[in-house]
């Protein structure tokens, strides 16, 4: 959405085509309209943008493209099917820009569809380097467009905050740090989506610690950041960018992050990078450096 807002601010007309979760009033209205009008992707409006929602992108795209007559189409997505769609749309004559912010498909063993007519854009130098290594392509970098005003806050910092406490994101590391630092308060904030059994087990352990609060996913992250002194991001994934790191940095909040993927370039001088295979003591030492020493924190 930030990309759409940025384009609109430059006087471009932007229309959005997206999937549809089978729940809620948006889904219900969409399905009723689809049935009555015989339209696979009926249009609604969000933040002043025309939004087309549905399931079969191949069925819906041609009609939407005929109506909107786009100069270009920006595709984003992490699924193999997204790459297939980009290939199909480009061969149909549309100018396709694929904005890569997930590497699971390029790094997989699956043979990619014909993407010779697709222009790729990377969200970080790490992503661009990976695509060059995997596909032999030199592609430009456009860092994620994140609206500062949506996240910048006045601080009353009280917590070490971890967002999306799942195993792959290093929740066990954060849990071990919290357990070893009973004098420091921690806030674990869920991301969107249902928690799998391993994450539910972590939630149960976290809620048993007196210095940890566990919060549901938040529509407005400003309240979370306003109470954050240090952001913790010990992810094991090869992250292509650390969006929450950037969001926190708008308010001068430092991050302690793993050395995976694009995290080092995302954090820059705004925090501490810890090797993912470091001991718990090394993570604790990094936290103590920022929590206990004002000069290092500044």
UniProtKB/TrEMBL annotation:
<dbReference type="Pfam" id="PF13692">
    <property type="entry name" value="Glyco_trans_1_4"/>
</dbReference>
<protein>
    <submittedName>
        <fullName>Glycosyltransferase, putative</fullName>
    </submittedName>
</protein>
<dbReference type="GO" id="GO:0016757">
    <property type="term" value="F:glycosyltransferase activity"/>
</dbReference>
<keyword id="KW-0808">Transferase</keyword>
<keyword id="KW-0328">Glycosyltransferase</keyword>
